[in-house]
């Protein structure tokens, strides 16, 4: 709480003094909302199936980085996917409702990952309007209401995956949001019922920062923002490749082969490519030269042909690889739901989405939200908490 910009910190020790004794957040002096956490089962809420969730569905460890931790279990009942959450009605326009232009955010989660790669915490209602065939019977259909969140990897299992959305919905005409980073380092899988000494030595600090000034989303694992690239992006993530291509073609005069005139400008993906950091020669003949030029966020295959005067002219550019950590976030803002309470809740352990996958399982010992992008030394300092002798407090 002494780190500037911390607007909420759940340690799973602090609770309401009266009533249901729900977990509450540490907040700055004078704050009017302590963000008490409700228990919910999103399958019941959206499919009308399964039972209500209760605090009993989140076993406590009795110790942790800050004194206690909750367990997200490997649920075997497909109609039961519990999470802890702050309803939208209690967070709308509050300090954790980070949205709009020029807004930065940091989200830090201390966890032990037993399995899975899905959500740890954040405001990330993925929407229930996607209707994959196995879940087409969803009763409550809502558009995506994504803002920011931290995942345990997604496509890079075990990494610190930070997600930010400008529109609450999909990216680059794809149904899922694709503005996300993935740390180069990954967390291990540790059985949640391991002996105490194993658990005490297994805490991982997942973090994501979004720096609005730099347009960067960065994933940090245990204080380190190790770089990661996605190679062969045309095959691996074709939606990103096409978003880059359409933006590149649109900048050229006249209609270009392969250009889609209906592709929206706000969905182009064209990170800065002013001056290459490195250039690698791939092939060269008397008349043609192909180079791989690396920029901060992309690697581009550049083809040049020799003109009659002996000079080289660029005849083709194609996106080869894209950097996943940090990720260049092209929009100017974070999604802003209408001021009628219809945005997504802040959830811990899972997010609302169209599937019923189990998601992340393991222990969560702390969740902190900051209204700015923390620096590398600040992230490193936070990552050291809980990675030495465990802190233990009496049960409350």
Characterization of this structure:
This protein has 2 domains: 6-227 and 328-383, Jelly Rolls; 233-323, no CATH class. Helices cover 9% and strands 30% of the residues. The strands form 4 sheets. Strands 1, 3, 6, 10, 11, 17 and 20 form a 7-stranded antiparallel beta sheet that branches. Strands 2-4-19-7-8-9 form a 6-stranded antiparallel beta sheet. It has helices spanning 42-47, 196-200, 233-236, 238-250, 376-383; strands at residues 6-10, 38-41, 70-72, 82-86, 100-101, 105-115, 119-125, 145-151, 161-164, 204-211, 216-221, 228-230, 278-284, 288-294, 298-306, 312-325, 327-328, 333-334, 346-348, 361-370. By secondary structure, the protein is mainly beta. The model is unreliable at 389-396 (pLDDT under 50).
Low-confidence stretches: 389-396
Classify the beta-strand content into a percent band: 25-35%
Total count of helical runs of at least 4 residues: 5
Secondary-structure element order, as H and E?
Answer: EEHEEEEEEEHEEEHHEEEEEEEEH
Morphology call? globular
* Major β-sheet annotation: 7 strands, antiparallel
Distance between the termini: 21 Å
Question: How helix-rich are the residues, as a percent range?
Answer: under 10%
The overall number of domains is 2
- Structural class by helix and strand composition: mainly beta
Calculate Rg over CA atoms. Answer: 23 Å
- The CATH class assignment of the largest domain is Mainly Beta
Mean residue pLDDT: 94
The CATH architecture of the largest domain can be given as: Sandwich
Number of strands: 20
Oligomeric grouping of the chains: single chain
CATH topology of the largest domain: Jelly Rolls
């Amino acid at each position: 709480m002494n780190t500037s910009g911390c607007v909420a910190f759940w340690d799973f020790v602090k609770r309401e003094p009266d009533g249901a004794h729900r977990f509450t957040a540490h907040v700055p002096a004078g704050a009017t909302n302590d963000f008490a956490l409700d228990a919910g089962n999103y399958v019941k809420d959206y499919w009308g199936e399964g039972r209500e969730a209760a605090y009993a569905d989140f076993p406590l460890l009795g110790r942790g980085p800050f004194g206690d931790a909750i367990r997200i279990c490997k649920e075997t009942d497909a109609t039961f996917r519990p999470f802890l959450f702050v309803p939208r009605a209690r967070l709308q326009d509050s300090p954790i409702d980070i949205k709009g232009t020029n807004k930065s955010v940091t989200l830090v989660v201390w966890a032990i990952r037993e399995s899975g790669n899905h959500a740890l915490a954040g405001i990330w209602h993925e929407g229930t309007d996607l209707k994959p065939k196995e879940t087409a019977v969803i009763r409550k259909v809502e558009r995506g209401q994504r803002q920011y969140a931290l995942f345990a990897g997604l496509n890079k299992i075990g990494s610190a995956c930070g997600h930010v959305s400008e529109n609450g919905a999909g990216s680059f005409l794809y149904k899922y949001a694709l503005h996300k980073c993935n740390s180069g380092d990954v967390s291990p899988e540790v059985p949640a019922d391991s002996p105490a000494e194993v658990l005490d030595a297994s805490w991982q600090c997942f973090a994501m920062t979004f720096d609005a000034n730099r347009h960067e989303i960065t994933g940090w694992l245990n204080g380190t923002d190790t770089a990661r690239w996605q190679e062969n992006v045309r095959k691996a993530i074709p939606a990103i490749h096409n978003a880059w291509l359409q933006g590149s073609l649109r900048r050229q005069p006249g209609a270009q082969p392969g250009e889609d005139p209906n592709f929206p400008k706000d969905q182009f993906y064209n990170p800065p490519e002013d001056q290459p950091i490195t250039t690698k020669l791939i092939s060269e003949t008397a008349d043609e030269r192909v180079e791989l030029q690396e920029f901060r966020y992309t690697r581009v295959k550049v083809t040049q042909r020799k003109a009659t005067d002996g000079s080289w002219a660029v005849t083709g550019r194609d996106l080869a690889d894209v950097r996943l950590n940090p990720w260049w976030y092209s929009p100017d803002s974070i999604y802003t739901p209408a001021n009628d309470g219809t945005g997504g809740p802040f959830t811990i352990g899972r997010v609302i989405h169209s599937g019923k996958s189990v998601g992340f399982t393991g222990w969560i010992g702390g969740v902190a939200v900051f209204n700015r992008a923390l620096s590398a030394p600040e992230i490193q300092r936070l990552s050291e908490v809980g990675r030495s002798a465990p802190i233990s407090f009496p049960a409350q």
